[in-house]
């Protein structure tokens, strides 16, 4: 049964890792806006890098982007 | 005299628009000098809105970051340390993109709620982690017990379980331990006392058993118990937090601003909360008074329908008192503030409100009633089991083990989840139907009513007056009236302009103070104003005899002339909703502060036979009390300041979003939009929710009827406890989800 000496600590530390990850995500505010997180995944913010380089106009102000 | 012929005001006499806006009240600065401000934003309904708002705001000069919370519809703007914060520019940019935004200040209660909610979530996480890992060890022990586990390995696993369970329970059990301690200090019992006792006893017995190399330990039961109870507690809290956030947003969206006259004579727009007694405030036509005040100069006709329910305007001059919520029809007033903010009550209303609120406090929630019965029963059963087994000749050790098993198995997992799970699901359904709740027990109280009392003005009718005979007026006359009306800020003029949205404003409009407006349209003289001004008194008198409750405005285009009938029209679905309520077996009554003739007309149109007119706030309460004395549960729906006390004293109350601030604060729920349908939907959802809550409580009772005898008989091993607890909790949660199904059906039927 000496294999338990490895397996039990391994199982526990994996669980603990999950707990730490949860507490970290809670602390960093990831549960503050759950509905927002669900829709933000659909936004095209990865295309904005390109948009910033073009002389595009700002959607809100109508002014050229900085 | 029946109808009143109102004249339109002269816009020429309006003072200059305010030169500055002062939002400093809402700005917060961190130690590094960075300024931050929160806004409640209206009109967010898609993912694209998030990007549009955040990117747009971040592109403004001086702004370091913009973050929109999609759940609460709040935008937080942080300015760079060097930059001078310019909230007005943010509001302007948002307005240009089509979002209405309002400066927002989170109240302290909401912040406390948020931190409690996080604490519960942390406890839930810890309990979940511990429950999973201990279960891993427990399952090994259980399967080992029927096969070939060595006593050493079993002890090792039990010690490991203890190592996880003890610190986890010490942390995750805090919410219960603290609450139980508070209850005991106050010499009372709440649900948390048996929970705390059960968890502590289970843990100490388990440690004792482990020390004596026993076969069973209850570490998994204790921690799993905490996990399920915390889940229920978190749901309950999430519900309250959400409703509070909604209420906060409402307060911000409806926040009134005041035009304050500074000592140096400048006119500055400030939030009404910043106005102090003694400040001078300017009020112009079309504005609502933000404070209670005394008129220093000027005269005006004032519509006090939100304050008293009376729809006929009152003329005010120097020395008269203006109440917060009054709408200025014409003229300009300079006020000296007497009372501002929360003190802006009529004395009578305040007194009645205090009395009504204390009476309301007696209501006990379904879950609390269950808990009150539960705690003593659990303790008695456990004690009886202990002594019963001792008398029957069992050892003290055996008897204690059985008593602890009883405490664990009766711990109210299903009970703790039964009510909050239904509430959260049902509140979500109502939110989609356009109704925002202020408290979770609204459902229970809504389901208990058999009578609905409506206020007339602003509740059954739309809050803004509208043109009722647009179809009967010749098109060219209506078009001319609408174009002329665009030049005036008079509330009646707004109603005319709204009836013909395509109208273009005229270039030159001449104002005739106290009479109306006049202009040339295609070479023809057109006039809008009092019947005398337009020369059609005869026509007006005829109409006045027919409809005494309407406000009449005349329009003349060349030789043609017409009288426009402006009144507070019924909400479009009022008749249908009231019929629905009657079909559902509810009695409908009408309580109004307005004149008899006006109330009788509305009551006749809706087929309501029980109606009271010219009711003072105290009279309304008296009617509600007499209904209550006859054993009726009354739902009061109202919007005026005069309704606030009756909303507070009714069994349960609703108000439209357009209601006065005081009134909205008293209502248990607020409905959005121009329809009355949410009232009927709320009743349906509430009845279904109560049905499910009761069903869930019944499930919990049945579970106990089966589990308790087993525990008393000594058959409950940790394995049986684990199965029973998780099984009942899952069943109750799944049952709660059915509140959503029923609600959807109700909502869709109304929408169709």
Automatic annotation (TrEMBL), chain A:
Coiled coil: none annotated. This is Cbb3-type cytochrome oxidase maturation protein. It comes from Ancylobacter polymorphus. The chain crosses the membrane at residues 6-26. InterPro entries: Cyt_oxidase_maturation_cbb3. Keywords: Membrane, Transmembrane, Transmembrane helix.
From TrEMBL, chain B:
It is a multi-pass membrane protein. CDD domains: HMA. It comes from Ancylobacter polymorphus. The chain crosses the membrane at residues 123-144, 156-177, 189-211, 217-235, 373-392, 398-422, 697-713. InterPro entries: ATPase_P-typ_cyto_dom_N (IPR023299), ATPase_P-typ_P_site (IPR018303), ATPase_P-typ_TM_dom_sf (IPR023298), ATPase_P-typ_transduc_dom_A_sf (IPR008250), ATPase_P-type_domA (IPR059000), HAD-like_sf (IPR036412), HAD_sf (IPR023214), HMA_dom (IPR006121). The keyword Secreted does not apply. Belongs to the cation transport ATPase (P-type) (TC 3.A.3) family. Type IB subfamily. Keywords: ATP-binding, Cell membrane, Ion transport, Magnesium, Membrane, Metal-binding, Nucleotide-binding, Phosphoprotein, Translocase, Transmembrane, Transmembrane helix, Transport. Pfam families: E1-E2_ATPase, HMA, Hydrolase. It is found in: Cell membrane. This is Cu2+-exporting ATPase.
């Amino acid at each position: 049964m000496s294999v338990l000496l490895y397996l039990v600590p391994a199982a526990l530390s994996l669980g603990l890792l999950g707990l730490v990850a949860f507490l970290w995500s809670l602390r960093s505010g990831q549960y503050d806006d759950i509905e927002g997180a669900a829709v933000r995944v659909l936004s095209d913010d990865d295309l904005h890098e390109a948009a910033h380089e073009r002389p595009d106009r700002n959607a809100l102000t109508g002014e050229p982007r900085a | 005299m029946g109808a009143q012929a109102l004249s339109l005001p002269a816009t020429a006499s309006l003072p200059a628009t305010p030169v500055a806006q002062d939002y400093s009240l809402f700005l917060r600065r961190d130690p590094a000098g960075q300024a931050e401000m929160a806004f409640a934003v209206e009109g967010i309904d898609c993912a694209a809105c998030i990007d549009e708002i955040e990117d747009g705001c971040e592109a403004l000069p001086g702004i370091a970051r913009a973050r929109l919370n999609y759940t609460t519809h709040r935008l937080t703007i942080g300015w760079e340390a060097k930059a001078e914060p310019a909230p007005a520019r943010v509001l302007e940019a948002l307005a240009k993109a089509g979002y209405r935004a309002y400066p927002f200040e989170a109240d302290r209660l909401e912040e406390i709620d948020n931190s409690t909610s996080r604490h519960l979530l942390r406890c839930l996480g810890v309990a979940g982690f511990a429950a999973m890992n201990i279960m891993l060890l427990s399952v090994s022990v259980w399967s080992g017990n029927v096969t070939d586990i060595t006593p050493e390995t079993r002890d090792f696993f039990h010690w490991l379980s203890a190592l996880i369970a003890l610190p986890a329970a010490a942390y995750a059990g805090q919410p219960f331990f603290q609450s139980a301690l508070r209850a005991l200090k106050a010499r009372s019992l709440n649900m948390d006392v048996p929970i705390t006792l059960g968890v502590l006893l289970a843990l100490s017995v388990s440690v004792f058993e482990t020390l004596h190399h026993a076969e069973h330990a209850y570490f998994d039961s204790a921690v799993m118990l905490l996990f399920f109870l915390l889940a229920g507690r978190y749901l309950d809290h999430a519900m309250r937090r959400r409703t509070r956030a909604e209420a906060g947003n409402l307060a911000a969206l409806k926040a009134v601003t005041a035009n304050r006259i500074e000592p140096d004579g400048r006119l500055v727009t400030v939030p009404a909360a910043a106005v102090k007694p003694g400040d001078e405030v300017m009020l112009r036509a079309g504005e609502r008074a933000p404070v209670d005040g005394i008129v220093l100069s000027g005269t005006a006709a004032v519509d006090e329908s939100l304050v008293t329910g009376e729809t006929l305007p009152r003329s005010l001059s120097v020395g008269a008192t203006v109440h917060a919520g009054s709408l200025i029809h014409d003229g300009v007033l300079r006020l000296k503030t007497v009372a501002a903010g929360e003190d802006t009550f009529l004395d009578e209303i305040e007194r009645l409100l205090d009395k009504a609120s204390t009476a309301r406090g007696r209501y006990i929630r379904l879950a609390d009633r269950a808990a009150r019965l539960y705690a003593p029963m659990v303790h008695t059963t456990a004690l009886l089991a202990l002594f019963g087994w001792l008398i029957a000749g069992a050892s003290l050790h055996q008897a204690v083990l059985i008593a602890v098993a009883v405490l664990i198995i009766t711990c109210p997992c299903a009970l703790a989840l039964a009510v909050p799970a239904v509430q959260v699901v049902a509140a979500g359904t109502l939110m989609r139907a356009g109704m925002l709740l202020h408290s979770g027990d609204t459902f229970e109280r809504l389901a208990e009513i058999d009578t609905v009392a409506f206020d007339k003005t602003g509740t059954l009718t739309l809050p803004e007056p509208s043109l009722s005979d647009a179809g009967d007026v010749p098109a060219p006359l209506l078009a001319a009236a609408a174009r002329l009306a665009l030049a005036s800020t008079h509330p009646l003029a707004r109603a005319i302009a709204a009836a013909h949205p395509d109208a273009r404003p005229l270039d030159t409009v001449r104002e005739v103070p106290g009479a109306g407006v006049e202009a040339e349209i295609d070479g023809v003289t057109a006039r809008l104003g009092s019947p005398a001004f337009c020369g059609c008194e005869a026509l007006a008198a005829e109409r006045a005899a027919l409809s005494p409750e309407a406000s009449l405005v005349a329009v003349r285009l060349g030789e043609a002339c017409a009288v426009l009938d402006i009144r507070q029209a019924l909400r479009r679905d009022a008749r249908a909703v009231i019929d629905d309520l009657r079909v559902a077996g509810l009695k409908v009554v009408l309580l109004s502060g307005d004149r008899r003739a006006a109330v009788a007309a509305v009551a006749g149109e809706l087929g309501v036979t029980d109606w009271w007119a010219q009711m003072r706030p105290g009279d309304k309460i008296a009617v509600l009390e007499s209904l209550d004395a006859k054993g009726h549960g009354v739902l009061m729906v109202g919007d005026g300041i005069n309704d606030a006390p009756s909303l507070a004293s009714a069994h349960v109350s609703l108000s439209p979003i357009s209601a006065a601030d005081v009134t909205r604060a008293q209502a248990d729920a607020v409905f959005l939009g121009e329809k009355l349908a949410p009232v009927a939907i709320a009743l349906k959802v509430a009845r279904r929710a109560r049905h499910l809550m009761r069903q869930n409580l019944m499930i919990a009772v049945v579970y106990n009827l089966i589990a308790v005898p087993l525990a008393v008989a000594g058959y409950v091993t940790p394995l049986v406890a684990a199965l029973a607890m998780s099984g009942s909790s899952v069943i109750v949660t799944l049952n709660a989800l059915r509140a959503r199904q029923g609600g959807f059906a109700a909502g869709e039927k109304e929408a169709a």
